[in-house]
Structure formats: C-alpha cells, structure tokens
Write a sequence for this structure.
C-alpha cells in the first residue's frame, strides 16, 4: 500500500504563483501544449535526465496517459497534479509515486517558457510533502539555489 487507508490525499496546493490540482483528461489540450513545447527543457530538469518521457505522442495518446494518471489517483497508487498559473494556464506537473528505495519519489517539471517557476515549485512541493504527506524518505531531485 502506497499511502495508509486513512490518509486524506491533498487535492490542492496553492501559492501566489501557482496552484496544484489533480491531473485528468480535462487538462489534455493545455497539458499537451505545455510539455510538447518543452521536451528538451524537461529532459534537462533534475530528475528527468534519464526519463523516456516526454516522447512523441498524439493528443489522443496524451489523453489516455492523463486518464491513467487519474486512475492511479483514484486507486491511490500514485498521485499526479497539474500545475496551473493563477489565470488557469498549465505550466507543469508534479508526480508522487512509489519508489523501491524510498517511501516516495517526487518529480516535477515546468514548461520552458515558465522556467523561472521550477525553483519555487520545487521548494513549495518539497515543503508540502514534508508537512502534509505520510512519507519519511522522499526522493525529489534537488534544484540549484536561485
């Protein structure tokens, strides 16, 4: 079991710069636009250097991927959040999933055009996971001090 049965999974994290909410198929167009315009930037983000994603996908394949993440959230086997600017534009994602060597592995990315949000997102999520999640050992690739 990834999280305890009685653990209430957070549905939101809000800061003045962005908010997190569960990722789902309703975010498909904006999510696709965010990552597909930022493939090289995402692969250069700490934690993503060796990842096979992002890769070429159609909009429909992306929708299926978002549905898989929503299903993981529903079954409590993993938690993916979209990162939205105050105006509602998708600027990235945060993933909280099981890890073999830690209680959880957290990864995040922001689109290339909003690269300055990477550090603030990392700090906010790091603190949120430490305060509000039931994990003691978390793998979340550090960012360079800004």
């Amino acid at each position: 079991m990834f999280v305890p049965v009685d653990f209430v999974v957070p549905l939101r994290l809000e800061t003045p710069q962005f908010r997190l909410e569960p990722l789902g198929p309703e975010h498909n167009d904006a999510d696709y636009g965010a990552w597909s315009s930022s493939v090289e930037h995402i692969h250069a983000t700490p934690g993503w250097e060796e990842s096979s994603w992002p890769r070429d996908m159609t909009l429909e394949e992306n929708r299926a991927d978002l549905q898989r993440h929503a299903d993981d959230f529903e079954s409590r086997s993993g938690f993916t959040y979209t990162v939205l600017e105050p105006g509602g534009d998708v600027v990235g994602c945060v993933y909280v999933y099981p890890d073999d060597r830690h209680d959880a592995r957290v990864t995040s990315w922001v689109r290339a055009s909003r690269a300055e949000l990477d550090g603030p997102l990392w700090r906010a999520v790091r603190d949120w996971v430490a305060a509000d999640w039931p994990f003691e050992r978390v793998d979340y690739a550090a960012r360079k001090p800004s």
About this structure: The first strand starts at residue 13 and ends at 14. The chain has a mean pLDDT of 96. DSSP finds four helices and six strands in the chain.
